[in-house]
Every structure is written in C-alpha cells, then in structure tokens.
Design goal:
This protein has about 140 residues and is α/β, with parallel strands linked by helices. It is about 40% helix and about 20% strand. The protein has a five-stranded mixed beta sheet. Strand 4 and strand 5 form a beta hairpin. The termini are close together.
C-alpha cells in the first residue's frame, strides 16, 4: 500500500471550514484502508486541542496520541484548497491528512515540512494540474 496515490489527492477543493477539510482528508485515509473511521474523530479532537496549522499555508491534521490503535498503515492524503481555509486565524491552501504507524509520524511530518518550506516547491504543489503531477513533486521531495 502506497503512502500516497491518486485516490488520496484532491485538487481544487472548496470547503466551508477547517473541520470539513479535516473530515475530507480523514475520509480519504479511511477509504484507502489506512485508518478506521474512528481515526477521523480523533483528528477533529486533535484540532480542538491545538491547531495543526504549521505555517507557509500548510496544515497537517492527524490523530491524538491515543488514536494509534485505529491506524492500520502509514498514509497521507492531500487537499489543495486554492481559496484557502481558516485554520485558527491562518490560511491553509494545502491540507495534508496524516496517519503513521509507530515512529514514522515524525519522519513523514519533517519530510513534508522540508518540502513545503521551499516557496518554489509550495508554488509547484499549489499549481499542479493533475494528481500525478502533485504526487511526483512529493515523491521527488520526500523519497517516498
């Protein structure tokens, strides 16, 4: 099972609020078999504890510490939101849902953070015309 594939990428998404974005990102992880549906609730719970907005237009919602039993395999989902969505006073244009087994969480998180910290790479991500193009940028930048 791939950490990232076409079925877990949505371009040109419009959402009402961050909770809708988190539900959508989480549902992609559920549909791909990475997590049980309960994990999505844990993602929402985590967001209520503290924002998962990381800066530079990126939010990475993930479950709480006690959500590990609901994770079957490491995976990520990607939403590109051209109009942006408010994450606690900050605008996220890229929302990446994350579920990771064991210690892979920090590894994936830091790889993504490094990739999007480059303005040029973030611009390429947000301007990707196809799911395949977006995945290629992540594969190139993250060694997936």
């Amino acid at each position: 099972m791939n950490i990232l594939n076409r079925e877990k990428v949505k371009l040109n998404v419009a959402v009402a609020d961050k909770f809708e974005a988190i539900r959508m990102a989480g549902q992609l992880l559920v549909d791909a078999g990475h997590v049980e549906p309960t994990y999505v609730e844990k993602m929402l719970e985590r967001e209520n504890l503290s924002s998962t907005y990381l800066g530079a237009g990126l939010a990475m919602p993930h479950g709480t510490n006690d959500s590990k039993p609901f994770i079957k395999s490491t995976g990520m989902s990607i939403l590109v939101i051209p109009g942006g969505v408010d994450f606690g006073g900050e605008t996220a244009n890229l929302v990446i849902g994350l579920a990771a087994v064991g210690d892979e969480h920090m590894e994936v998180l830091s790889s993504v953070a490094v990739l999007v910290s480059e303005e040029e790479d973030m611009a390429r991500i947000l301007q990707a015309q196809t799911e395949e193009e977006l995945i290629a940028i992540f594969e190139e930048g993250m060694d997936l």
